[in-house]
Structures are given as structure tokens and as C-alpha cells.
Specification:
By secondary structure, the protein is α+β, with helices and mostly antiparallel strands. The protein has a single domain, classed as 3-Layer(aba) Sandwich (Aminopeptidase), CATH 3.40.630. 33% of the residues lie in helices and 36% in strands. It contains 6 helices and 8 strands. It has an 8-stranded mixed beta sheet, with helices on both faces. β3 and β4 form a beta hairpin. The longest helix is centred in the first third of the chain and has 16 residues. The radius of gyration is 16 Å and the shape is globular. The relative contact order is 0.14.
């Protein structure tokens, strides 16, 4: 299916049914790492849950509403990134991402998101990309900050996770700003 070459070590590949077991195993191995900031690990109980997620993602892709891709590092599934939605009317999308703990510190997410931003602006013809992340998640916040996104605001007590409310910071990037950092 659809693959985007990022560099010699990194590729983005649309998640397909064949990835369900590897996706589940990665989530399962990183349950506490991912669960600090994301709710989906607690909802992913078996490989069938990952298969259902992939199926929903492929349906959304077929409908033009976004997709999720695996971040492959030297051929191994390291994490995922995706367009949570694609709004052609307003020309906007939001990028989400996560990475297994063993793959952090290599710039993989930054590289993947850079490729996704290029794809959003130059292949999909969108005009704005958003990224939202928990205020307390410094590693996740570093990605949009490194790529020149603008902090647009904070959504107070946006989500309830692990017994407490978390604020979420919203970053935005306009097409004409891309590459000026």
C-alpha cells in the first residue's frame, strides 16, 4: 500500500491489517509509557482491538477523512503518526503521533511529522496543520516547537486521564510559515 520514504532508516507506511499483531505488541510492551499521556493503550486489550483501529483508519482514509501510518525504523514498527481528520473545506488537519519507549531520542517523530506536514501542504493542498499535546508532556511538545509551530492556546482540563485532568496545548502552522524557522 502507501509508503512514504523519510530517510535511509525511517519510512511511514499506512497501517494495514497485516500490521495488527505488531501494533498490538508494541502498544502492549509500552502500555505504561504511552498511558502516561494517551488513553488508547487502556482500551487496547488484544490484537483484535488493533485490527479494529486499523480497519476504522482505512475506512476514514477511503472517505478522505485522515489516516494513520506506522513509523518504521529499520523495518521495525516503532510507533504511529496520522491525520486525525482532514477538513478540505477549511483546509485543516491535525497530526497525532506516538512512539515506543525503545525508539525515543532518535528524532523519529520529528522526522515523521515533518514528512506529514509536507504531505498535508503539498500533496493534500491544505493550509493549516494543528498539533495538540498535554501541557506536561515535554517530549511531545518539543516536536511542534522544533518544527516551527506557533503556540495558539491552552485548552484547560481538556481530558481526564489516570485520575486527573490535563490541560492540552494547541499548536498551529500555516502553509506560508512552513520552512521559515
Amino acid at each position: 500500500m502507501f509508503t512514504m520514504h523519510v530517510d535511509d532508516d525511517v519510512e511511514l507506511s499506512i497501517l494495514e491489517p497485516k500490521h495488527a499483531d505488531a501494533l498490538f505488541e508494541l502498544v502492549d510492551r509500552n502500555r505504561s509509557h504511552l498511558g502516561m499521556w494517551l488513553s488508547f493503550p487502556n482500551k487496547t486489550k488484544e490484537a483484535g482491538d488493533s485490527a479494529a483501529f486499523i480497519s476504522r483508519s482505512l475506512t476514514r482514509m477511503a472517505d478522505g477523512g485522515g489516516f494513520w501510518a506506522g513509523i518504521l525504523y529499520k523495518g521495525e514498527l516503532a510507533g504511529s503518526t496520522g491525520f486525525l481528520y482532514i477538513d478540505q473545506e477549511t483546509g485543516r488537519t491535525e497530526i497525532g503521533y506516538w512512539l515506543g519507549a525503545a525508539f525515543t531520542g532518535r528524532g523519529l517523530v520529528t522526522k515523521a511529522v515533518r514528512k506529514m506536514v509536507d504531505y498535508a501542504f503539498f500533496e493534500l493542498g491544505l493550509r493549516k496543520v494543528d498539533i495538540q499535546t498535554a501541557v506536561g508532556n515535554g517530549k511531545s511538545r518539543a516536536v511542534p516547537e522544533r518544527l516551527g509551530f506557533t503556540k495558539e492556546g491552552v485548552l484547560r482540563e481538556y481530558e481526564y486521564l489516570n485520575g486527573s485532568h490535563h490541560d492540552r496545548i494547541v499548536y498551529g502552522l500555516l502553509k506560508e510559515e512552513w520552512g521559515k524557522f
